């Protein structure tokens, strides 16, 4: 991550395979250690839910500030998912996995929502993981405070589109001759308007 711009690679493994609810079975498991879904490692079967698992690992990395696999740490704590999973669903203990560089300066409700989402993505049962569209919806809820009204992308684009004026609107109609005002031009103060 550079200036909080994430740089991801080795994702979208499921895109290379079949579409829809179909799966792909590989004879050689590929991918970066720590990101591959358990069912993919065990069977070579790749689905869209495999990518959801991998995304859960990335979320966990963002929350904790640790890598998916840290070989400098001994034992079970080496694997980020195994180390963090017991804390993800517990509001009182979540701070134990949060990146210490944040020094506690983060919205606790948002952190817990993100941790809960990561936990759902990391479910050992692929069918129990959310669809990526649901992951996106949850991330948008975390990002936008409840007080702010939610608008659709098309509505946002409509509201923020540049105003285009037709040249015809700014012209005087051809059958009307502009006349000078009989009154002298007086600049009104903002209160007089």
From TrEMBL:
Residues 147-193 are annotated as: Disordered. Residues 169-193 have a biased composition (Polar residues). Transmembrane segments: none annotated. Coiled coil: none annotated. Residues 1-142 form the Protein kinase domain. InterPro entries: Kinase-like_dom_sf, Plant_Ser_Thr_Prot_Kinase, Prot_kinase_dom. GO terms for molecular function: ATP binding; protein kinase activity. Pfam families: Pkinase. Keywords: Kinase, Transferase. Residues 159-168 have a biased composition (Basic residues). This is Protein kinase 2B chloroplastic-like. It comes from Trifolium medium.
């Amino acid at each position: 991550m550079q200036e909080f711009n994430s740089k991801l690679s080795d994702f979208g493994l499921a895109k290379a395979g079949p579409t829809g609810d179909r799966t792909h079975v590989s004879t050689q498991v590929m991918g970066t250690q720590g990101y591959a879904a358990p069912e993919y490692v065990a069977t070579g079967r790749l689905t869209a839910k495999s990518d959801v698992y991998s995304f859960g690992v990335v979320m966990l990395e963002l929350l904790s500030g640790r890598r998916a696999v840290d070989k400098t740490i001994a034992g079970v704590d080496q694997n980020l998912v195994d180390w963090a999973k017991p804390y993800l669903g517990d509001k009182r203990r979540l701070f134990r996995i949060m990146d210490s560089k944040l020094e506690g300066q983060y919205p606790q409700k948002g952190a817990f929502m993100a941790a809960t989402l990561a936990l759902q993505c990391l479910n050992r049962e692929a069918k129990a993981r959310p669809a990526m569209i649901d992951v996106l919806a949850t991330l948008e809820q975390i990002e936008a405070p409840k007080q702010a009204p939610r608008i659709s992308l098309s509505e946002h684009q409509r509201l923020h589109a540049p105003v285009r004026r037709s040249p015809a609107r700014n012209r005087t109609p051809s059958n009307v001759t502009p006349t000078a005002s009989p009154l002298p031009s007086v600049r009104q103060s903002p209160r007089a308007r």
